[in-house]
Input
Amino acid sequence: MPELISVSESFEVSPMMPLFTAGGHFYVLALSRNRVRLFRGTSKSFDEITNPAIPQSVDDALKYDVRESQLQVHSGAGGSAGGKEGSVFTGQGIGVDDEEDRTHEFLLMVDKGVRHALPYDHAPLVLAAVSELAAAYRHLNKYPVLLDQSVVGNPDRLKPHELHAATWDIARSYFERDQKQAMTRYQELAGSVRTSTNLQTILEAAHAGRIESVFLPAGTRKWGKFKSEENLLEQHPQQQPSDEDLLNLIAKQTILHRGTTYVIAPQDIPEHAELAAVFRY
Output
């Protein structure tokens, strides 16, 4: 993150923008029966997330399961050396149906753990697993943005940097497609009350939770003050005492209200404007 000294009455989200904006971060679930890992990644970073709600393996998930091999005792036909009837001991292992049930229960616990670890996030999740386990997990997954494409194979054999490279390619394609769709939506609504390139209008909409998506220029700041109660805006060419970055304020409010922020090259902003937004209503 770039070093920044900024004094204002609210927290600074701009340095952390890659963690919160579209195209900024994604998650990876590396799943096998022997090992379960969850990662948070960006184009340049890849870190494992530890959460006790996520079982570490099928044995960890089902450590209290009683469906183990059972020992059965049958009376023997022949007598023993003491003249008494003997006993025959036979073992009965876990059947195919039981093993499928164990796998299903394991995957349910993994899905629940992932959603516990990421309760308010809608960043894309990339699955890395062998085909059979991946298909089973997809069937019961409830995380809202599990991507269709997976890294197929045993993820236990991949080092973190190899897993990062393979999954970033999938996530990047999703981000590029998502941003293109957002651009297309802006173009379809351009000129209506559902879009704007006006700073004050976008600030008001951000505080009201009306922003569906907003396009902000990378590396740009706009200093000033905005009083949301009265919708009063002051802009300054240079930072003044108690000023804040108004673009940072828009990003923060958009994120808090579950909108999507795209930080892109200034020349790529729709209508060649300084910023642009699509409103929910």
